[in-house]
Design goal:
This protein has 4 helices and no strands. It is mostly helical.
């Protein structure tokens, strides 16, 4: 039984990039954008299963940036720092 995802099997360099950037949600957003929005000519895109995995990871990253531990959404305008 195969335990590696399609992403791990076929694009280990992307998995490495995700592992490196995951410590910082903003860096992860930038990394995902750099691989999902490609302006180079002649690219066929990712296989559907890989694209689905990347979208799942992107969704997880979005949620960790916008929800607190109780699952309450943090709208960007509601952030304050040091009582400002």
């Amino acid at each position: 039984m195969e335990t590696m995802s399609m992403l791990e099997q076929h694009f280990p360099h992307i998995v490495q990039g995700l592992q490196t950037s995951w410590i910082d949600p903003v860096a992860t957003d930038h990394f995902l954008q750099s691989i999902l929005v490609d302006d180079r000519d002649g690219r066929a895109g990712f296989p559907a299963a890989v694209f689905d995995e990347l979208m799942f990871i992107s969704d997880l990253n979005w949620k960790r940036r916008h929800f607190n531990e109780q699952g309450v959404e943090f709208p960007p305008d509601d952030f304050s720092f040091g009582g400002l």
